[in-house]
C-alpha cells in the first residue's frame, strides 16, 4: 500500500476535485487545511465558517472562504453548492457553550451542513466524530456524536466516512483543563499503547486525506482510532 499511495494521490489530483472544510479555525481543521493545501489534492478548496480567517501564507492564496450564519444556514445554501468532498471538523464543548449550545453545534449545525452539502452535490462527506460515539450512550457527548453520525448516514451520501479519534494530541491554545489533564496523563499510556487512547492531530489529518484518495469500496466507512493511526502513516515508509 505504501508504494501505491503516491500513485493514488496523483490519480486523485488529475480528477480536479473540489472540497470544503467546516471548522477550519479549530485545531483539527487548521491542520487539515495545511495538509490539503500542501498535498495539492484538490483543485479548489473552500472554507465554510462563521468568520473570515486571516490566511497570510502565500500557500493559501487560492483558498476561498464563505462566511455563514449557522443559525440561518438555509439562507446560505449557495456556500455548499458544487463541492465534491466535504470535511466536517466542527464542534464545541459543554463547558464552552452549555448543554444546549453543544447540541446546537455538534448535532444541529453538523446535520444541517451535511444536508446542504448533499443537496449541493457533495459525493464524499467526512465527519470527525469521536471514539465511543454511541446514540444509546448515557453520556451526552457520546450520545450526540452517535446520533449525528447516524442521521448524516441517512442522508445517503455516495461515500460517507466517519472518523472516531480518541484524545487529540496537539498544543491547544485555548485553555481546556480537563483535556489538558487527559493529555498529560496519556503521555506514558500513549507510549505503551500508541494507538489506543490518543492520536496526534497530524496523524488524524493525514488519515483523512489518505483515505479520501483510496478507492472507497464501502458506502459508509467507520474508522476507529487504530485505523486512523494506520491510515495516517500510509506512505511514510517511503520518506
Ligand atoms: N479534542 C479532542 O480530544 C477530541 C477527541 C475526539 C473527537 N473530537 C471532536 O473532533 C471535532 C474537532 O475537534 P477540535 O478539537 O479540532 O475542535 P476545535 O479546536 O474546538 O474547533 C472547533 C471548530 O468548530 C467551530 N465552532 C465552534 N462553535 C461554533 C459555533 N457556535 N458556530 C460555528 N462554528 C463553531 C470553531 O469555530 P471558531 O474558531 O469560530 O470558534 C472551530 O472551527 C469536534 O467535533 C470534537 O468533538 C475532539
TrEMBL record:
Pfam family, one: NAD_binding_10
GO CC, any one term: cytoplasm
A GO biological-process term: import into nucleus
Keyword set, alphabetical order: Acetylation, Disulfide bond, NADP
Source domain of life: Eukaryota
Record bears the keyword rRNA processing: no
Oligomer status and interactors: Monomer. Forms homodimers during oxidative stress. Interacts (via N-terminus) with elongation factor EEF1A1 (via middle-region); the interaction is direct and competes with EEF1A1 binding to guanyl-nucleotide exchange factor EEF1B2, thereby inhibiting GDP for GTP exchange and reactivation of EEF1A1. Interacts with nuclear transport receptors XPO4, IPO5/RANBP5, IPO7, IPO9 and KPNB1 as well as GCN1L1/GCN1 and LRPPRC probably through their HEAT repeats. Binds NCOA5/CIA.
Protein name: Protein HTATIP2
Organism of derivation: Xenopus laevis (African clawed frog)
Organism ancestry: Eukaryota, Metazoa, Chordata, Craniata, Vertebrata
